[in-house]
Specification:
CATH class: Alpha Beta
Low-confidence stretches: 182-196, 304-314
Strand content: 15-25%
Number of helices: 11
CATH superfamily: Alpha/Beta hydrolase fold, catalytic domain
Number of domains: 1
Helix content: 25-40%
Radius of gyration: 18 Å
Mean pLDDT: 90
CATH architecture: 3-Layer(aba) Sandwich
Shape: globular
CATH topology: Rossmann fold
Number of strands: 9
Length: 318
Amino acid sequence: MSSPPFLQLPDVARAEQVRTTRGTFAVHQATPSGRPRGTALLVPGFTGSKEDFIAVLEPLADAGYRVVAMDQRGQYETPGPRDPAAYGRAELARDVVAVTDALDSPGPVHLLGHSFGGLVVRTAVLHHGPARWASLTLLSSGPAAIDETEAARVRLLVGALASFDLETIWQAKRELEGPARTDPGGRPGETVPFAAPTSPAVEEFLHRRWLATVPEHLAAVGEQLLTEPDRVAELAAVGMPTLVLSGGVDHAWPVPWMDEMARRLRARRVVIPEAGHSPNAEFPERTAAALAAFWDATGPDAPHLAPGQRGGSVSRPA
């Protein structure tokens, strides 16, 4: 799971509730001091929440963007039903559309999904068309089902959810994995180990968030990570300006998979070599700089380019 480096919202941000046609969603919203260059909607991944983006709120607001990080239904502070059918990709994608429409943004809206959130936002684009959004960012999210090594861990979790409560599973996870980490460790090509543990406050938050997540959400999303089809060709046909951003090591979707996905999408590709699966939490300043540069290039003031020409480069910041 993603571990935020801290929990205190910056001065530019506040916790809010967004009321939509599909229910109310807990969000963190950050606003720039001047007129926004646009709005960014950030969608978290498996076992995550809006707090996964807390460290990028201020640098993105400083870059001129209004930023809204949401919980998906059934995550942390956004309620969801005890019905697995409520957590299919199509249902979660409809939530993203509803939140987008409720934002009432006067400027362009840039859509970002982290990890499983990337599968949700691409479903939103494919099922509802790209007209609502100026760009799409797939952050540490791949072309299809996750790698087999990580899939084995997800199968274990899905099986445990059928037999045990969340507290029992949490304690077992901590015995197997140790405490969460703040430093991704390692270098490209190396295994990313658990390194420095989080602060006690963050560790307590991760526990509290886990217990607040609807179990049916976890089980349904876990199954989807194991079975997601390759929809890259469909997304490429949409022709939407796209950024594929990741760390230099990723156990869910290996980095070469994301490199190839970016090529197929004719997308801009950015790799932060020292980062793992959550560059947004591990290297927030560099992640925010890459996002803002991409959004600047796809906003209304950018030179007119065909969608497939907006990006296409491979950047591996030092």
